[in-house]
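Re: duplicated header lines in exported structure tokens

Our pipeline writes sequence and tokens for each protein into one text file. With two proteins the header for the second block appears twice in some exports. Here is an export where it did not happen, for reference. First protein block:
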Amino acid sequence: MSEYLIWHNPKCSTSRFVLQALQDAGVDPAVRDYQQQPPSAQELRDALDRLGIAPRGLLRRKNTPHDGLGLGDPALSDESLIAAMADHPVLIERPVVFGPGGARLCRPKETVFAMLAG
């Protein structure tokens, strides 16, 4: 089993860049197309804990049903946002890389290099 895991969207140029950067560094990450294999609400909670961010920090707005679902309402609870991401994985910002040194949302894409550096 790989020490690294990437929540990947093969249609996303940033996600492809990060995956290639990992591979170029000699890392053979486990790749999870998170839209085809969505994380559960508990996996999202665990990821947020590892990332050290609140759900809004992992919430993608562009080209998603974000506005149609009313997710911009500041009164929504963290659990409501997590449930929305679990139900609509397109709402999860990408790519997220999990490794032995922690986890990072690799936006901007160059963030992956800091993760690889230690």
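Second protein block, exported in the same file:
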Amino acid sequence: MALSVLGFLGSNFMFLTPYGTELRMSLAEMVIMTQHRWYAWFLVGGAERDRMVEALWERITSMGEEPQNFNLVQVAPRKQRTKDELIHVEDIAGKNYRGKMMWVYDPHSIRMVVTSKQGWGERITEMVKRTGAVAGVNAGGFDDPDGLGNGFAPIGLIMSDSQVLYQDADGKQPIVGFTREGKLVVGNYKLEELRELGVKEAASFYPRVILDGKPLITSGEGGTGIQPRTAVGQKADGTVIFIVIDGRQPGWSIGATEREVQDLFLAQGVVNAGFLDGGASSELVVGGELLTKPSSRYGERRLPSAFLVFDEPDKIVVTSLGRG
């Protein structure tokens, strides 16, 4: 009887009060950004869930359409650096989150690496150790329709050393990548456009939040709630900054909004920035050690792709998904 009363009161609160309605909408936004977005039906109903998904994609598309001014970033020619000279990592914290910020001082050192396990994703700690990388973060999105957590169903486009390793659709896609000159590319692009720009390393994810030094979220907190996050930005001198936010762990870190991550980048003088896959995939590895706390029930998640940092990037050969 007590459980029935609590359930009745909770339902009334969630569905019949303004605060409860706001809470349901926020929770639905969070669920929509996971691989189980269709479960948002329980919170807002099927029609509203579909409307929210459509609105999300319209927003993402609009944020990625305007071309970048690549002249705003000037990258120095690559030079040999020690591992200690390549990166710097600091703790960051906000109202609801804890995480890490990593500076990469030479963007030429960043390579796209994919899993070496046929039919399975690979943990970033394993990728880093296998390739001898200095550090790594999760990169593009992937699908896990059966909930098995094997990390071997990438979404979008993956490029390494100018070679297409995976592509599941034609037309424009939300891209995060680096050109041969080491300039960060974030936005909606066709493959032909990426080739014209000289994009060398790339994965698919969204949204772009800073364009040519201007924030794209100017009101509200962004449309995907409080989440674990991974994002990348670049300063005018070419320095790349990765941000990884832990989340979904009360007592440690709940997560951050898109606006909070955007503002962290702006405070560092970033001129272009966008998000990589987040949620339970968000993690940072340095020297083979996992420095963040992923929220996945599997522990450190198996993933199809990662951006890794190398002191000798030209020696790394990535052949194809699951075989390099």
